[in-house]
Amino acid sequence: MKQPDYPKELLLLALLLAPMVYLGIIWNTLPTIIPTNFNVEGTPDRVGGKSEVLLLMIFLFFTNALLYFLFRYIPKTEGEPGPEAAIHQSEYYRIRFMIHIYLSLFTGGIIFMLSQGREIIMERWAFIGVGILIAVIGLYLKKLQPNNYVGVRTPWTLQSPAIWKETHRMAGTLWLCTGIVIILASFFLPLVTGVFVLIFVAFILAALPYIYSFRLYNTDKG
């Protein structure tokens, strides 16, 4: 397996850690009481403390960290031709950068608005951000070509271009629809419930395409 590009990995890790470092720097300047919900007149009808902010930021940090480790350690690269491997690896890093830059800027933006006393419903914006990311990944999966770096890389999709195409069509639709549902659900999901829902959703998004590719393989085998 090709050695990782360490400068790029360090940059990705810096993007991963940047929002938490920023939060640590401005932590003492955050308001003690933070409005977390507003009525139709624009006045707060629910407030929270710094502990809710910390819980939300930890959730976003672990979401980002999970994506980093999934992309960093899962890719299978053995047996791919040299020129094609170089092209796929470049695309693979580009996707990783886009995801981590998005999450870093999005998380940093929430922290900044909180530090400025802006009237935001932080959990709503957090779940909307995650939903947008999932939906965009879904759109990307639908047109992803077979490779050993990114996508639903099961033993069965890697053996058959047809199974790869059908699995990614299904996975792309699943991720896209899930992202849209999360965006809509963000308008009524409370923070703690939403965190547990997203953990369950993450398991479903990973498991169903894997199972689907296995069933396609066995169907083809008769």
Number of domain units: 1
Overall morphology: globular
* Tally of helical runs: 7
In angstroms, what separates the terminal alpha carbons? 34 Å
Number of separate strands: 2
**Order of neighbouring strands in the sheet with most strands:** 1-2
Question: What is the beta-strand fraction?
Answer: under 5%
Structural class: mainly alpha
The quaternary state of the protein chains shown equals single chain
Average of the residue pLDDT scores: 80
User: Helix and strand string, N-terminal first?
Assistant: HEEHHHHHH
Low-confidence stretches: none
> What's the helical proportion of residues?
over 70%
Largest sheet: 2 strands, antiparallel
Rg, please? 20 Å
Keywords:
222 residues, single chain, 2 strands, globular, 72% helix, mainly alpha
Give the SSE layout.
Blueprint: H1 6-26, E1 34-38, E2 44-48, H2 50-73, H3 82-115, H4 122-142, H5 155-159, H6 161-185, H7 191-220
Antiparallel strand pairs: 1-2
Helix pairs in contact: 1-2, 1-3, 2-3, 3-4, 4-6, 6-7
Structure description:
This protein is mainly alpha-helical. It has one domain (6-220). The protein is 72% helix and 5% strand. The chain has a two-stranded antiparallel ribbon. Helix 1 packs antiparallel against helix 2, helix 4 packs antiparallel against helix 6 and helix 6 (161-185) packs antiparallel against helix 7 (191-220). The protein is globular and about 60 Å long. The two termini are 34 Å apart. The model has no long low-confidence stretch (mean pLDDT 80).
